[in-house]
């Protein structure tokens, strides 16, 4: 990539092009590109350069990317991201569509220990039928800051590694 883009050091798939007070952020995922910037004209110039160098289809205003719904309120200068449909699918897949939400997934001071893991052959056999790892793995792709600690917290116990 060129045209003045600099790769973000911590993320090899995000690039930034800046010219004084104008900037464009380019996020790349396989064959999808998402552009965001603070100047419509600057974003359009980048799109023009991209389309002259690569075969591409301009979707204009994005509403979904990687199961994230993007909503813009231009009057309030507000951008909202939501994964409700994705989360709903995960909970339906694991027969938890009717579960009750909690404000805090883990209470302060909550601990888990290896003593809580299944130990007997009967307990281990029963747990084989619980899609615990699949559920935790599905939640790892949900961009919800309010659950990321809880998901990490319980994931370390899925293989009795505590």
Output the keywords.
5 helices, 162 residues, RVT_2, 3-stranded antiparallel beta sheet, alpha+beta, 24% strand, Reverse transcriptase Ty1/copia-type domain-containing protein, 4-stranded antiparallel beta sheet
- What oligomeric state do these chains adopt? single chain
Series of H and E elements: EEEEHEEEHHHH
Evaluate the radius of gyration. Answer: 22 Å
- Which regions are unreliable across 5 or more consecutive residues at pLDDT < 50? none
Count every beta strand, where a strand is a DSSP E run of 2 or more residues: 7
Which strand-content bin applies to the residues? Answer: 15-25%
User: Based on CA inertia axes, which overall geometry fits?
Assistant: elongated
Short description:
By secondary structure, the chain is α+β, with helices and mostly antiparallel strands. Helix content is 31%, strand content 24%.
């Amino acid at each position: 990539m060129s045209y003045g883009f600099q790769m973000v050091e911590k993320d090899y798939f995000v690039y930034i092009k800046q010219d004084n007070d104008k900037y464009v952020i380019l996020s790349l995922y396989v064959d999808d590109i998402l552009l965001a910037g603070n100047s419509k004209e600057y974003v359009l110039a980048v799109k023009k350069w991209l389309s002259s160098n690569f075969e591409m289809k301009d979707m204009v205003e994005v509403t979904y990317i990687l199961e994230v719904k993007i909503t813009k309120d231009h009057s309030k200068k507000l951008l909202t991201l939501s994964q409700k449909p994705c989360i709903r699918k995960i909970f339906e897949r694991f027969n938890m569509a009717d579960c009750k939400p909690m404000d805090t997934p883990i209470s302060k001071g909550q601990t888990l220990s290896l003593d809580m893991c299944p130990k007997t052959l009967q307990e281990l056999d029963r747990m084989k039928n619980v899609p615990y790892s699949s559920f935790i793995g599905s939640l790892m792709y949900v961009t919800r800051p309010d659950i990321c600690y809880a998901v990490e917290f319980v994931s370390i116990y899925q293989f009795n590694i505590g």
